[in-house]
Amino acid sequence: MTRDALEYALDALDLRDAALADRLMSLYLNLNAFPEVPEALRRLKSAGLKTAILSNGTPQMLEAVVSNAGLGELFDHVISVEAVGVFKTDPKVYQLAVDRLGVARQEIAFQSSNAWDAYAASAFGMRVVWCNRYGQRPERLPGKPDRQARTLADLIPILGL
Q1: Beta bridge mates, 80
Q2: Burial category of 94 from C-beta neighbours within 10 Å (exposed 0-12, middle 13-18, buried 19 and up)
Q3: DSSP conformational letter for 82
Q4: CATH fold of 34-158, please?
Q5: Per-residue pLDDT tens over the stretch 4-18
Q6: Is residue 118 over pLDDT 80?
Q7: Cβ(151)–Cβ(36) below 8 Å
Q8: What are the structural domain ranges in the chain?
Q9: What is the rounded CA–CA span in Å between residue 17 and residue 3?
Q10: pLDDT of residue 17
Q11: 0.85 exceeded by the pTM?
């Protein structure tokens, strides 16, 4: 899906260059985490909480991104939508997290910087903190995040840690 979106954007800009598309896709696998993320994840884990990623990415892409960012030991689960064959915002994706984590949906504290994802998780019944780094306006979608934060570090006091 990411490749399709990139190719669409390149076509819309009349940039038909397969080498450029390949280079941009490879850069996507080497994204750095925001500076506060490793320490925030360490604090969550040291408090005894499970940490997980729930992503539209493929397992191979997620493995590369997590490894290249040096975050592998900080996640208990890395969950790809490929297991259910649909993308977020389909409720089957959020149910996949419930099933894999073995907890009720309302026991999951779900964080996303994508408003559409935060709203969909909220509509599904999860507790949600929208990481609104850039001060975006709220979406007009079903559900509503319980809280907003500017960074993942803001999650620590929200959870009372």
Answers
A1: 55
A2: buried
A3: G
A4: Rossmann fold (3.40.50)
A5: 888 999 999 999 888
A6: yes
A7: yes
A8: 1-30, 34-158
A9: 13
A10: 86
A11: yes
Q: What is the mean pLDDT of residues 106-123?
A: 96
- Contacts of 58-65 with C-beta under 8 Å, sequence gap 24+, read 58/82, 61/2, 61/28, 61/29, 64/29, 64/30, 65/28, 65/29, 65/30, 65/31
For residues 147 and 95, give the distance between their C-alpha atoms in angstroms, rounded to a whole number. 21
Phi, psi of 33 (to 5 degrees): -75, 155
Q: What is the mean pLDDT of residues 49-77?
A: 95
- Retrieve residue 76's tokens: 């208990």
Distances (CA, A) of 149 to 2, 20, 111, 119: 26, 35, 9, 14
Spatial contact of 52 and 75, defined as CB atoms under 8 Å apart? yes
The pLDDT, as a whole number, for residue 37 is: 97
Cβ(129)–Cβ(149) under 8 Å? yes
Q: How far apart are CA 61 and CA 97, in angstroms?
A: 18
Assess contact for 135 and 148: CB atoms under 8 A: no
pLDDT tops 90 at residue 25 = no
Please name the residues in contact with 4: beta carbons below 8 A apart, sequence gap of 6 or more: none
Q: What is the CA radius of gyration of the chain?
A: 16
